[in-house]
Sequence to fold (674 residues):
Amino acid sequence: MRAIRMLLLAGAAMIGIGAASPPPAMEKDAIAARRFGNDAAWYRDRIPFFESADPKIDAVYYYRWQVFRGHQRDLGEEGYITTEFFDDVDWQRHPYASLNDASGFHIGEGRWLNDRRFTDDYINFMYRSGGNDRHFTDHMADSVWGRYLVDGDRADAIEHLSVMNHIYRLWDDKYDFDKGLYFVEPLLDATEYTVSSIDASGGKDGFRGGDAFRPSVNSYMFANARALSKMAELAGNKAMAVGYAARADALQKHVLTDLWSDRLTHFIDRHQSRKNEFVNYWDPIRNRELVGYLPWMFDLVPDDAKYAQAWTHLLDPASLAGKAGMRTVEASYEYYMRQYRYLGKDPECQWNGPIWPYQTTQVLHGMANLLDHAKATGPVTRSAYMRLLRQYAALHYQGDRIDIEEDYHPETGKPIVGLDRSHHYFHSGFNDLILTGLVGIRPRADDVLEVNPLIPDAGDSQALGWFRVQDVPYHGHKVAVTWDADGSHYKRGKGLVIDVDGREVARRETLGRVEVRVSRAATPAIQRPINRAVQLVRGQYPMGSASSNADVENVHDAIDGRVWFFPELPNGWSSAPSPAEQWYAIDLGKPVGLARAELAFFADGKGFAVPQSYRLQAWVDGDWRDIANPKGSPIANGVTDVRWPRLQTARVRLLFRQPRGKATRLAEFKLFGE
Fold:
């Protein structure tokens, strides 16, 4: 019989649990300092801390939090949004730089932060401020439900239910009422140059066109309908709950019946184009694509060996298994890896074979679901899951440097696009995979904490001897999960240990599922200080000005709401080297009560260094007056907080002297009233 010891928190009753040693808490201050340097303060009380026997997975885990942090764009009164690219692109929603295709990943990662503001603001923007403009397909309603499974906050889960319902119904313009399925042009599915679009062009192109009934959009709409049904039930709207449950059931049946190919043993597209000389309406596409695994990501597929056999193709080198990662179409496709698009001499993004972290994330979520609660798993094992998770982690590495990019060659693992916009690209997930898959936290709507790590048993080449994650928010509590195969690493006994709020609540000696009742607690209130200095539109207030390098774009970059310190992507106002005192000023256009500034300076040990001295002035009674004169230098590659007695002013400026021969890069200058 499996050894499981459990504490039921709801009744504070112990079941077979003796005195336990204190949990092996990680030194998060030291870890934050080592991983994030001077920017450690942003992460210290926000992220769950993780460590394992695999240092590469650990490094990517912390790097992905840097990616998340860098992609938080401060819009001022509208709060934060999550961006996909650091550089502006033509197809973003202007002037915000938002895109909706990866919103599910953004929310999936952000739901694990102890600071709920970023994901909450982002959801508010998407539904309250029109951010979800349906530019691409998405599973955003499902991800909002997924956030509720972690934080348990009912009010936040149902706040935008009416808008989510409205957006769902707008997708009727892509619904074929005869077939009972949704269709989409692959480009608007964020996957240009797929089999359906290339074949619809006769092999000549594939960027536009190729409308198809796809496993992706239909899985998204199934998941969104199911989520809306559950949120409507939470809200007490029984009619809406029943209606969306019926929609989800109908979609599921049509996907299983019409998008499953017995010939290919895979979920596939069917062409939707009615007037096309190369393809016929309702014909199935001729090759397998990675998108065929998306139904498993959303638990659309029943536990049946008929469907589980599809996973054979993912592990087959002749089909979807590249040497370096998952091919987006199998190697036998006639136009596999043919390059169609070029920007100058650089190849552009395509989905006719290259590895895309976007779909790799989706497939790994699907594998995790299969391993967690299916009996018919086909060839999928925990060892295969961990091997592919490690393969995905390896894609982040370019030599010793970590940098996730758009897409990769499936045989070499080298980036394909290679454009500036591609660096540190937030178009995928990783930490959500670690927490729900490797660690195995399976968030639920009821008052139960369920943990089922998906690592293989000791002796397997993909096994992990130990891991620990702590400070994981769950239903108003903080959870820690520790695995120590033989007890030698943490020296507190072997096996799997669950802690809630610093107290051991369950233990078992072997890998497996643990369920613990956890009474729901209130989530901490979200603090929302408002940045008064941000401006997204050039030429409007607030306005920046500077003593040197006063190009409009250069000056604007210091008040655009973006903070990151990646050297590959310059960000902020860069001064000219000068022995004279330099300045950067912000004109707010009207008097505002201010009491604090945040200064983010970039330094690279080369041409850019932080000021040797600095001070802040405000325009008071027709003159500049010092309001803060800190000693020493501000910190590099982090945020320096400067405070003064609250005052009303319309203009603030930073003055500083820089080291001889060095320039200063002010990544961001923020002003607050509190």
Remarks:
- The chain has a mean pLDDT of 95.
- The longest helix spans residues 215-235.
- The CA atoms of residues 148 and 157 lie 6 Å apart.
- The longest strand covers residues 582-602.
